[in-house]
Design a protein that fits this description.
D-amino Acid Aminotransferase, Chain A, domain 2, 301 residues, 8 helices, seven-stranded antiparallel β-sheet, D-amino Acid Aminotransferase, Chain A, domain 1, binds pyridoxal-5'-phosphate, nine-stranded mixed β-sheet, single chain, alpha+beta, 2 domains
Length: 301
């Protein structure tokens, strides 16, 4: 796929294999590459992006948090993303937008000059491979980065070593997911997803502050409230996670993903009723069959 795929780089659509990165670039050596990912799904009216404007707002926020400046308008970037999906002619895709300093740099201070902007549209399928079945999870020994050490609300490559360590820890212990607590010992999030628990029919998740402002987290909360499910955002202790009736993650990539074992406890009949209801409703919204949330879709034309 990579060979045939066209990517958008600084205003031009080029074969992916022609896009290269300088090994001494600031982005490569310091990890200061901003990125954003949103999904484009098949609907009866044609492919439509899910909450594209919210993702682009977060992209702008990440740029601001790292004191960077976008060399192009956000509308230009939005149109380029649409063009990239149309050029590659694939439905059900992720769109990845990146902004980074591509020039040679020997300093931690970013070099002067414009950011490069890259947009890539790629199929969901290789990524998903079996990831829609319930999964086991553990509480990772690694804590979520403290918000006073780096801006945790920024989607920047360097921050992801934290999630990588928790995923490796989970893998070594034989689990699918590693849930990170914050440095105070309360639930934070996964490497690339938010976490929800359900107890006695009430849906709970960690508050903003130590976690990414996730678009799917906002979606789950809004949809749950619209469906009459009580939602509480609060500091959640590890023992509440271990004792939950249902646990699921939410992310752009995998939407609602149910947990069927937490540490040494099996969660019977996962996905449970709340996870199942939310998962079904959100799939319906993404595929354009739920009139209540049609505003969240942007047609690719
Ligand atoms: C650290 C982190 N938390 C949560 C999420 C889920 O965010 P979203 O729903 O916006 O995809 C992501 C997504 O990449 C992430 O990287």
């Amino acid at each position: 796929m990579g060979k045939e795929r066209k990517i958008w780089l600084n205003g031009e659509m080029i074969p992916e294999e022609n896009a290269t990165v300088n090994v001494m670039s600031h982005a490569f050596t310091r990890g200061a590459a901003i990125f954003e990912i949103f999904g484009v799904h098949k609907t009866p009216d044609g492919p439509a992006a899910f909450r594209m404007d919210d993702h682009l707002k977060r992209f702008e926020k990440s740029i601001e948090l790292l004191d960077m400046e976008l060399p192009r308008s956000i509308n230009e970037i939005k149109q380029a993303a649409i063009d990239c999906v149309k050029t590659n002619n694939i439905e059900d895709v992720f769109v990845r937008i990146m902004a980074y300093h591509s020039g040679e740099s020997y300093s931690t201070v970013p070099p002067d000059g414009d950011l490069d902007i890259l947009i890539l549209a790629f199929s969901f399928d290789p990524f998903r491979g079996g990831m829609n079945k319930p999964v086991s999870a553990c509480i990772s020994k690694w804590r979520k980065l403290h918000p006073q050490t780096v801006p945790v609300e920024c989607k920047v490559s360097g921050n992801y070593v934290n999630g990588m360590m928790s995923s490796l820890d989970a893998k070594k212990r034989g689990f699918g997911l590693g849930i990170m607590l914050d440095t105070q010992g309360f639930l934070a999030e996964l490497s690339t997803a938010s976490i929800f628990i359900v107890k006695d029919g009430v849906l709970m998740t960690s508050p903003l502050g130590t976690i990414l402002s996730s678009v799917s987290r906002r979606t789950v909360i809004a949809v749950a409230r619209a469906e009459g499910i009580e939602v509480i955002e609060k500091a959640i202790r590890a023992d509440e996670i271990l004792d939950a009736d249902e646990i699921f993650s939410s992310s752009t990539a995998l939407k609602v993903w149910s947990v069927n074992r937490i540490e040494d406890r099996d969660i019977e009949d996962a996905p449970g009723p709340v996870s199942t209801q939310l998962s079904r409703t959100i799939s319906g919204i993404c595929s354009g069959s739920d009139e209540r949330f049609k505003d969240w879709l942007t047609l690719m034309k």
